[in-house]
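Problem: given the chain below (171 residues), write out its structure.
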Amino acid sequence: MNKLVRLAAAGVLAAATTVSVAQQQDAPIKIGYVSLERIIRESSAAKSAQDRIQQEFSRRDKDLQEMAARLKQTSEKLERDATVIAEGERMRRQRELADLDREFQRKQREFREDINQRRNEELATVIERANRVIRQIAEQERYDVIFQDAVHVSPRIDVTEKVLRALNSAK
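Solution.
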C-alpha cells in the first residue's frame, strides 16, 4: 500500500510538472536589447571615468606637449645654425637631438600604453556595473534574453534607456 501511495504521489508530481512546463512554453518570449556602445558613451559612470582618466593623465600630457615643442625648437635652431657652426658642434647637436627624439618617442609610447590600460580598467568597471543593472532589469521584468550586440534592433525591444536611467540613478 505504501508503494502505491508513493507511486501515485510521483504520478501527480510528474503531471503537475508537465502542466507547469507546458504553461511556460505557451508564454510569449520576452526579448530585449541594450546598446553597450551607448551605455559607454552616455552613462554618467562612463563620463566620470573619462574625467578621472583626463585628470590623472593631464600633467603627463602637458609634459609631453612641452617636450615636443622643445624638440621642434631644437630642430629648427639646428637647421638655422647648421651652416655657421663647426662640424663637431653640429654632430654633437644632432646626437642630442636624436637622443631627445628617442626619449620623446619612449615617453609618448609609455603614455599611450598607460592611458589605454587605465581606460580599459575603467571601461571594464562600467561594463560590469551595466551588466549587473541589465541582470536586475531582466529578472524584475522577466526577460527571457537581453542581447548586447545585434545587426538590427527594433526600438520596441531596446531597453538601453532603462539601463542608462538605472545606472545614472545608482551611485
